[in-house]
Design goal:
CATH topology of the largest domain: Rossmann fold
Strand content: 5-15%
CATH class of the largest domain: Alpha Beta
Number of domains: 2
Radius of gyration: 19 Å
Strand order of the largest sheet: 2-1-3-4-5
Helix content: 25-40%
Order of helices and strands: EHEEHEEHHHHH
CATH superfamily of the largest domain: Response regulator
Shape: globular
Length: 219
């Protein structure tokens, strides 16, 4: 069987010229969900973070416009009637919006049964200082817009939907080529040639990625 050989893979994005530049914090919307006051809210806003605080979430669509979502694992999400409260909300948000970045935080020990719910979710301790909060949120912003991370998530989704491995490799080649050589212009991604072999569901996924990739390359 013919195996497509990539000219480009995401490893080509390791070069210094392709790494993320200084991130403009204000361009990324951050939601914090906590039924108690978020003590660092004003100080984090003062250093450029675009934060909106919610006391609770009654439906997932409330947070659809945010790049980064940080939630307490206790005391929120009560309308979903899950014993795991905020951890359940984060799991459902991550399932619905896989290209966002998520963090869970708490000020106390938590039920180890929620570990599976928080797979892929960064854990932040409530009592860390402002410097640690700043570093943690910067890392979440980078996760939400790093083109390598975006493609890895994309590849996992495509493969889980049984998209042919060679087709995924061709899409990766095209994705990286656009970032390196075409100034991040994803207006024709995927190409008509590649699109012919893809299902409607796959093209919809790719369209979502193109938007995310454009965001990342404009930083």
């Amino acid at each position: 069987m013919f195996c497509f050989r990539n000219k480009y893979t995401i490893s080509n994005l390791n070069t210094p010229t392709q790494k993320l530049q200084q991130i403009d914090r204000g361009r990324f919307k951050i939601a914090v969900v906590d039924n108690e006051p978020f003590v660092y809210e004003d100080r984090l806003k003062a250093i450029g973070f675009n934060i909106t605080k919610y006391d609770d979430v009654s439906n997932l669509d409330m947070l659809s416009s945010y790049n980064v979502i940080i939630g307490d694992i206790k005391g929120v999400g009560k309308s979903f009637n899950s014993e795991f409260e905020g951890a359940f909300v984060l799991k459902e948000l991550k399932r619905r919006y896989p290209f966002k970045a998520f963090a869970a935080y708490t000020g106390s020990a938590y039920d180890i049964r929620i570990n599976d719910l928080l797979n892929g979710v960064q854990i932040i301790k409530k009592d860390i200082d402002i410097d640690s909060w700043s570093n943690a949120i910067d890392a979440l912003i980078k996760e939400s817009c790093d083109p390598k991370i975006i493609w890895k998530k994309t590849r996992d989704i495509l493969l889980s939907k049984d998209v042919n491995v060679n087709d995924v490799a061709k899409l990766e080649n095209e994705y990286v080529d656009i970032i390196i050589n075409k100034k991040g212009d994803f207006s024709h991604f995927p190409s008509e040639k590649n699109k012919k072999k893809l299902s409607a569901d796959t093209i919809e996924i790719i369209s979502t990625i193109a938007v995310k990739a454009v965001l990342s390359t404009l930083i």
